[in-house]
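Folding Task

Wanted — backbone structure
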Amino acid sequence: MHCGNYHRPVSRRDLLARTAYGLGAAALQSLLPAAEPIYRTANVRAKRVIFLFQAGGPSHLDLLDYKPTLQNRYDQDIPPSIFGTQRITGMVAAQDRFPVVPSMYKFRQHGQSGRWLSDLLPHHAKIADEICVLNALNTEAINHDPAITFIQTGSQLPGRPSMGAWIDYGLGAENQNLPAFVVLNSLPGNGMADQGLLSRLWGSGFLPSRYQGVQFRSGGDPVLHLSNPPGVTRDLRRGQLDGIAEINHHLHERVGDPEIETRIAQYEMAFRMQASVPDLADISKEPEHVLSLYGDDVRKPGTFAANCLLARRLAERNVRFIQLYHRGWDHHGGLTEKLPSMARDIDQASAGLILDLKQRDLLKDTLVVWGGEFGRTPYAQGIHKPNSYGRDHHGRVFSLWMAGGGIKPGHVHGASDDYGFNVAEDGVHVHDLQATMLHLLGINHERLTYRFQGRQFRLTDVHGRVVKEIVA
C-alpha cells in the first residue's frame, strides 16, 4: 500500500527534469547573497520570550486594576447598561442577580511611575518602573479550555501550533544543545492545581513535530531517559545513534517522509542534552544573593520560584521561548482564602526574575509576559460578604503585564470602565498581544505563515495589530 505520494513512481523524464531544475536553482542560489525570510523585520527588540502563564484566570480587580469607586457599590447590581449582552458561564446562570463586590485588598502607588498595585504584590513594588501593565486586554472565550487554547495558539479550537512552536519555526534555535522551546509546569504552594493542562498547549499542531515544546520535569531528570542506563557509556550511546541515523537516512531516501528527518534531529538533540541539561539544572553555584531574589521556595523543584530561576538560566543560554505555567487561579469561591497563597507563590519570584535579568543585562532583549487566559468578574459568584467572595470568569476586560524586550517600562496602556467590566479605552485583543510579541522578536505576524489543507495559516489568524503604544 502506498502512503500519500511518498512511493509514487517517477519516470526517467521526470527525474531528469527535476534534477536539472534542482541543479540550476542550486547554482543560482550559490551566486546570490542569503536573503532574510519575508516575515523578518529589521527592528528586532527581543531575542527570547519568557511567558509566565497563570492558568485559571487571576483576578485583575484584586491585583492590577485599581477600582476605588467600587467601594461604595458593594452589593449593588451591575447596571444593565454596563452588563449589556455579556455571555455568562454555567456557574452563574442560575443567579437571579449579579451584585458588585469590591476588592477587599488595598492598593498603593509605587515607583516613579506611581503604579497602582495590590498589597498582595509587595515585591512587585520593586519592579513597578520596569513593567508595562495592559489593563484593557480582552478575549473571545469565557471558559478555560478555549480561552487558554486561544491565548496559546491563536484559536479557540485545538489543533493549531502553539506560540512557542511558531517562534521556533520562524526564528530557529540559537543554542544547538538545548531545545528552542522549553515548558516548565509549576505546582501552587497550596497544592490545589485546579485546571489541568494538556500537552497540545505547547504542541506543534500542523507544523513539523520538531517545533513542539519540550517539557522539563520538576523531579529527577528534567527530561525522561536523560541518563544512560547502567552499562551504557556515552561512546556506546554515540555508536547506537549513528547506526540508527544511518537506517533512518536510508528510509528517508526511500519514502521521503519529513518526520524521519525530525526523528533524526531529535535523537541528536537528546544526545547533546545529556551533557547540557545537567549543568542547566544544577543551581549549586548560584550565589546566595541571587537565590534570595526569588524567595525561600527557589530550592524546591517544581515551585514557581524554582522554575523562574530555571527560566533565567535558560534565557542566558539563549533558549528562544520559555513557557512557564502556574496553575490554581480559578477562584469561583473562597477567593479571599486562596488568592493570597497564589500571590505569594508568584510575587517575589516574578519580581526576582525581572531584577535578575536586569542585573545581567538580559532584560533589554528578553521579553517577559505575566498573565492568564482571562480575568474575573466584578460581581460575586454565589454567597458573598465584603471579606469573603468568589468571582466567575471574565474575558471582556482583564489585565496582564509585560517587561523588557523593547516594551515601554513604567507604563499603563488601556483602561477598563469604573466597574472593571468593559474596555473603556485602548483595548488590546489577544491577537493584538500575539502580533506585538512577534513584532518585538522581529517578525511580521501577517507574513509568518504555513500552508495547511489549502490555506495559509498564521498565529494571529486573520486579524491582529501591533500595539505600538507600548513599544519603547
